[in-house]
Amino acid sequence: MSNRSWFYASNGQQQGPFPEAQLRDLITRGTVRADTLVWSEGMSGWQRAGEIPGLIPGGSGPPLAPQPGGVPMGGGGSYGGGGYSGGPLSINFGILEFVWRSLVLVIGVLLFIPAPWVLVWYLKWIVPCVQVPGRPNLSFTGEVTPVAVWYFGLILGFAVLAVVLSFSGMDRFNNVGGSIVQIVLYWLLLKWFIANLASNEQPLGLSFSGSIWAYLGWSILTVISIFTIIGWGWVYAAWMRWFCRNIQGTRREVLFIGSGLEFLWRAIVAALASVFIIPIPWVYRWMWQWLASQTVLTERGAHANA
What we know:
Layout: E1 5-10, E2 13-19, H1 20-29, E3 37-40, E4 47-48, E5 87-88, E6 90-91, H2 95-110, H3 115-126, E7 130-131, E8 138-140, H4 144-167, H5 174-195, E9 197-199, E10 202-203, E11 207-208, H6 212-226, H7 232-245, E12 247-248, E13 252-256, H8 260-274, H9 280-293, E14 295-299
Antiparallel strand pairs: 1-2, 1-3, 3-4, 5-14, 6-7, 8-9, 9-10, 11-12, 13-14
């Protein structure tokens, strides 16, 4: 193992790579602890350092014991008396099913009126494709009614605003108004999505606490970062960390540990491959699998002490 390079998660960010000798020095100094998430080439996902045999003296035993009667993620009830030791998320889906379902989604959105219905239908398919440590049979329980109300209500509001701006000779602000309407809709959909996640048909009791103003700020920063050519990779990674920090109702902390550089090169590879059209479904799955693997559950406050 002496030639392996290691990464570890600290403060919601990926650190490394480090030669194993340097990692062991970090362990000796207490920077990397038994509950710190680490990864090395050949591992299927992030693991606690204490779960890797031989890495931490006295820490090669089994994962941390579940807490009796605990609800590891979410407050929507207890089943099986199970806790869990955390770890990365994962996602997988069949390419053919993804293609035809995505085509239906795109067509539904382009046709405007069916958009809320196809969105709910798509989410009810894609969410069960995600595996969360300690939360089997993930599902989405959201209904179409709130989405339809927000969707058509905001569009109607924008139409009225556009008419007012037109009569006021301020047509040039229509694009700004449309962008704000989109941001508000996406923020509402995000809160609705998080609140309607369930496991084993029991609501997880999650919520999203990020404010609309913060979401607006991140959206503006993302647009500005595009002009830096490469800076948007770091902005997107930071946005993901902000999003994860604002998921409430979990006994474990949700962290995004992917780096801006990883985001950047993967997005560039995905864009280049998508030029050839056919690879798009495989590229899409590859990106989502990476995003899932960089989203981890860990003890609250553990990364702050790493």
